[in-house]
Amino acid sequence: MLVLVAAPTVTVFVQSFTGLAERSVTKTEICGPFGCAEQSGLSQQATTSDKPARRFVGLAHYRDRAHLAFGEIHHRWHTSDSLVNFLQKTLTLPFYGALLFTLVYTLIVTPLAILLGLWLACCIKRLAPQYRAPVVFITLLPMVVTPLMGALALFWMLDTHAILGTALREISGNNAFSLRASTPLTWLVLIFHGIWQSAPLAFVVYYAGLYTVPRSLQDSARVDGASQWQILRYVTLPHLLPMTIFLVLIQIMDNFRVLDPIIGFAADGFARTLSFNVYADLQSDAIRMGSAATTSSLMIVLLALLITPILIWVMRHNTQHSLQPGLRAHQRRSFA
Amino acid sequence: MRIRDVVLHKATSAKIVSSKPVAGASQSAYHGWPGFLSTLGLLLWLVVASLPFLWIAWGSFKVEADFFSKTDWRGALTGARTLAETGVRFTTDAYSGLWVQESFWRHAGYTLGIVSLTVCVSLTLGLLAAYALSRSNSPYVGWILLFALLCRALPHVVLVTGYLPAFFSLGLWGSWPVAVVVLVAINQPFTLWLLYAFFRRVPRSIDDSAMLDGCSQLQAFRRVVLPLMWPAIATTALCSFLLAYNDFAVTGLLLNRHETTIVPATIQFLGTAFDSGKIMYAVAAVVSVTAPLFLVVWYFQRRLVRHISPVA
After folding, report:
1. Within chain B, which residue ranges are assigned CATH 1.10.3720.10?
2. CB contact (8 A) between residue A207 and residue B305
3. Inter-chain touch B164–A287, beta carbons under 8 Å
4. CB-count burial class (<10 Å; 0-12, 13-18, 19+) for B25
5. Closest alpha carbon within chain A to B147
6. Of B185, B267, B293, which has the smallest distance from its Cβ to A145's Cβ?
7. Which residue segment(s) compose the domain that A34 sits in?
C-alpha cells in the first residue's frame, strides 16, 4: 500500500516541477472568427517515442495563469479600484474559481449532509420494525447508486422542459427560467445533489451507532427528568462523537474531490472544481501532465490544511475519544 | 399545481412505508406535532431519494420527445409521443439500441473483468495486511492506520496523475491491468481499515490456541480465523465492488473509449447527444447500470448497515 499510494504522491510533486522539453512542443496558430490563438501540443516525434522528453521548469507551472497566476493577480491588484472588484476579477481565473466552488461545496455539503443523516437515523430508528427495511433500502439508494448515474437521473428531471423544470418555471412565473442559466442556481443544484448523495453515508454510520448507545444511560436521564432534546444533546450526541469525527473526515475528503456531478450536469461553464480542472487537463488531446500535476499538488496541500486541524484535535482528545477503539488502544500503548 | 398532484401521488404510493408511528415499542416515539413533522419529513425524504430512479426507469421506455418533454411535460407520464411514434406506450427501442446496436454488452464484459479482479486483489492484500496489523505488538500500528486514512484523502484524479509517468514510460497506458492497479490503490486504505476493525473482534486467544495445537501462524489464519471472518469479508467485498463499479474518474481517464467500463461508456452517448438521437441510449444505460446495484443492495442491506460503521 505504501508503494501503491505514496509513490504516486511523490511523482505528482516531481511532475509539477517539470515540463515538456521545447523540442517536443509544437506551436500551432488557430484562427477563428474571434482572432487567432496560439495552441501548443505534443509534436509527432514526442508522441511516437514512448516517453516525451521532459525538463525541469521550477515553479513555472505554479506561477502560470492556469494555477496560482501571480502575475495576473499582481496586475489585477493594481488595476482594480476596490477589494470587491479585485476579488471578482480574481475569481475569473481558472484556479481560484475552482478553488472557491470546491471550498464552498465542501463546507456547505459536509455539515448539512451529516445533520440530515443524523435526523434520518433518529427518525428511522423510531419507525415500527416492519417498515424499517424498505425505508432503509430507499434511503441508501442515493449513496450506493453510481454517483454519475444518480446525478444524470436527477439533472434530467430538472431539465427545462422535464417534470421538475416545468414545476420550477410555473412557480417562478418566468417561462425562460432554467437552472442551467446562472451561476448561483447551478451551485445550488450541485450542492443539493451533494447533500442528497452524502447524507445516506452519515445515516448508515449513525443508524448503526445509535444502537450502541447504552439504553440504561438514556433511561436514567429520562428518570432524572431530561426531555427528548436534552437526552439527544447530553447523552446520545456525546456518545456519537467518535463517529461524527470519522464522518467529518470522510465527508471532507469525498466532497473535496467532487467531479462526477459536474460532468453529469455539464456544469463546467458555471461551476468547476479542482478535480474537474485536473480531469480536463488529462482528458485534452495534448495531455497536460505538468499542469495536472501542479493542480494535484495544490489539492494535496489544501487537503492537508483542511484535515490537519481535525487530526490535531483528535490527538489532543485522544484519551477520551478516538476514531476507533482499536486504534485508541494501540495509541495509548505507543504513547505510554 | 399539477406538479403537486404528482408529488402527492408518489407520496401516497410510498405511504406504506411510514404512516403509523410505531405501534408496539413506542417508548421513544414522538407524539403530537413533532411526530407529525418527522413523519412528514421522512416521507419527503423518501420521495426525494427515490423519485429520480422511478422517473428514469419509467422514462427509459419512452421516446426522446416524451422523456425530455419536448411538447408537454405530461407526455413523459402518459407517453403520448411514444404512442404516436411507435404504436405502443412502452417501447424497448432504447434498450435494444443500446445493447445490440451499440454493443453495450462488451463494456459490461470489461466491467465484470475489471471489477472482479479489483475485488479479488484488494481483498487478498487487505486480508493479509489487516491480519498482520491486528496481531502485531508494534507501537507503529496506530500510525500506519492513520497514514492509511490520510491516503484515502487523495482525490482519485491525483492518483491517476501520479501514475501517468510510470505507465507511460512502461508503455502500459490505456490497458486494463493498469486500471485494476489504480483502483486497488484507491481501494486499499478503506479495505484495510474495515478489515482491521473486523480482525480486532476475533480474540487473539483463538489464534493462540490454534498455534498451541500445532498450527503455524499462517495456518491459524487460514484454518481458524478466516472461517470466522466470512461475514466481514462479504461486507468488505461489497464495498470494494461498489467503489470499482461506480468509478468514473479512473476508468474514464485510463481506458480508451472502445474498451472502457459501462459508466464512462454512458458518458459517450451524452457527447454525441442531442443531434444524433442517441440520448435515449444514455437513459437506458443509466437504468442498466443502476439495476444490478438495486439487487445487490437489497440483498446486502442488513449486513451493510450492521457492519459499515467504524465503531459498531
Report:
1. 100-308
2. yes
3. yes
4. exposed
5. A2
6. B293
7. 24-55
Over residues B148-197, the pLDDT tens digits come to 888 888 888 888 888 877 777 777 777 888 889 889 988 888 899 889 88
A326, B129: Cβ pair inside 8 Å?
A: no
DSSP letters, A30-45, are EEETTEEEEEEEE-HH
Residue of A nearest to B58 (CA): A153
Mutation target among A42, A149, A287, A296 for the B interface, most CBs of B within 10 A: A149
Q: Look at residue B73 and give its three-state secondary structure.
A: coil
Taking the Cβ of residue B189 and every Cβ of chain A, the question of whether any pair is shorter than 8 Å is answered with yes
> What is chain A's length?
336
Residue A310 forms part of a structural domain: no
CATH number, domain with residue A113: 1.10.3720.10
ipTM above 0.90, yes or no: no
Q: Do A139 and B49 touch (CB under 8 A)?
A: yes
Tell me whether residues A205 and B146 touch, CB distance under 8 A: no
The residue that leads in pLDDT, A59 or A31, is: A59
The residue type at B203: P
Q: Which residue of A has its CA nearest to B180?
A: A4
Nearest residue in A to B137, CA atom: A330
Instruction: Give the whole-angstrom CA distance, residue B53 versus residue A327.
Output: 39
Least CB-CB distance to B171: which of A8, A50, A135? A50
pLDDT by residue (tens digit) across A186-198? 899 899 999 999 9
CB-CB contact of A173 with B76 (8 Å): no
pLDDT at B116: 94
Q: Which residue has the cell 422514462?
A: B59
A105 touches A259 (CB < 8 A): no
Question: What's the pLDDT tens digit per position in A196-246?
Answer: 999 999 998 898 888 888 888 888 888 888 888 888 888 888 888 888 988
Q: Which residues contact A307 (CB under 8 A, 6 or more apart)?
A: A249, A252, A253, B150, B153
Residue ranges of B 62-91 with Cβ closer than 8 A to chain A: 67-70, 73, 76-77
Least confident of A161-170, B44-53, B222-231: A161-170
What fold is seen in the domain B100-308? Answer: MetI-like fold (1.10.3720)
